[in-house]
Amino acid sequence: MMSLTPDLSCAPRRPRLRDRLLIPVLLLAVLGGLVGLAAGTGWDEIREQIGALHPWQVCALLGLSLANYLARSLRWHRLARRLGLPTDLAQDTRHYLGGFAMAVTPGRVGELVRMRWLRRETGWSVTRTAPLALMDRAGDLAAMGLLLALALSLAASGIAGALPVTGLALVAAVIVTRPALLTTLVTLAFRALGRFPRAFARARGAARSLSRFSHGPTLTLALALGLAGWGAEAFSFHLLLGWMGVDVGLWKAVAIFVFATLAGGLTGAPGGLGGAEAAMVALLSLEGVPLAVSVPATALIRLTTLWFAIAIGLAAFPLAERASLKAQG
C-alpha cells in the first residue's frame, strides 16, 4: 500500500530526475489526450457545454467534493483517537487536508508529510503512526469497493472489467484490516525475498499495531464516513452529466466515477493521472455519450475533485507546517 521512511526528521533526499519529470510528463499526456479529443470533436461544442454551466452549479460540485474531504478528515480523526494519538479535531483536519497538497507526487508523499507533522507535534515515530495511514487507505478501498458493487447491482447494465477491480479493492481492504493476516503475508514476503530485514521488521510491527482498529464501532464509523464522502463525489458526477444534458442514470454514473477512480489508482500514477481520465471518457462513450460531452465532463469533474483537493491542500499546507514547527520548537 505504501512505503515507510525510517526517519522523517532528516532532510529528504534530493529527488531523482525521473521523479521530478514524472508529474509534468503525466500532466502533458493527460492534457494532450483531452486536447486531441476536443480538437477531433470540435472546440465550439466543448465551449458550449462548459459555458452552459452556471456558477452555482460549479459551486455545488465543489461543495460535494468538500463534503468528501471533510468526512474523510473526520474519519482520520476518529482513527487517530483510536490509535491513541493526543491530537484534537482541528489538528487532524489540518494534517489531513494539508496532505492533499502532495496528492500527485510519487510515493504517497502526502501520507509521509502527515506523519512528519504528527511526529513534530506528538513525538510519535513514523512506525507508530504508520497504521493510521494504512487504515485510511483501507477505508477508502473498502468504501469505494462497496459503492461500486452497490452501483453495479442497481445499474441497468454492468461495466466490463468492473468486477475484478471491485474484488481487488475489497480484498486489499480486508487484508489491511486483518492484522494477523497482514503480518503473515509480510512474513511470507520476507521469506521469499530474503532481503531488507529491517524494512520487513518495521512492516510487521505496523501490521501488528493495526489490532487497535479491530473494533466494531470504529470500523463501522470509518466505513460509513468513507461511503458518505465518496458517495458525495460520485453524486456530483451524476449531477454534472445531467446539467450537460446527458442522463445515464444515477447508479451508472456512480459506477463510472468510482470505477474510473479505482482504475486510475491501479495504474500506479500519482492521483490516477491519465488512467482515470481515459477510463471515464471510454466508459461514457460506451454509454453513447458523445465526446463533445464526455471530454468536458471528465475535465470538469477532475478539476472539481482531484485538483480542488490539491488547491485545498496547498492552502492548508503552510498552516500545518507552521503549527508543527511551533509545537516542535
What topology emerges from the helices and strands here?
Blueprint: H1 17-41, H2 43-51, H3 55-83, H4 89-99, H5 109-122, H6 126-154, H7 162-176, H8 179-193, H9 197-209, H10 216-243, H11 250-266, H12 275-286, H13 291-303, H14 306-328
Transmembrane segments: 21-41, 53-71, 141-163, 169-193, 213-230, 250-269, 276-293, 299-320
GO cellular component, one term: plasma membrane
Subcellular location: Cell membrane
Number of strands: 0
The overall average pLDDT, rounded, is: 80
String of helices and strands:
HHHHHHHHHHHHHH
How much of the residues is beta strand, in percent?
A: under 5%
Global geometry: globular
State the domain count: 1
Rg for CA atoms? 20 Å
The CA-CA distance between the termini, in Å, is: 32 Å
The percent of residues in helical segments reads over 70%
Structural class: mainly alpha
* Largest beta-sheet details: none
Low-confidence parts:
1-15, 37-43
Count of helical regions: 14
In short:
The chain has 329 residues and is mainly alpha-helical.
Write a structural description.
By secondary structure, the chain is mostly helical. The chain has one domain. 77% of the residues lie in helices and 0% in strands. It has 14 helices and no strands. α4 packs antiparallel against α5. The relative contact order is 0.16. It is a multi-pass membrane protein. Keywords: Cell membrane, Membrane, Transmembrane, Transmembrane helix. This is UPF0104 family protein. Its main location: membrane.
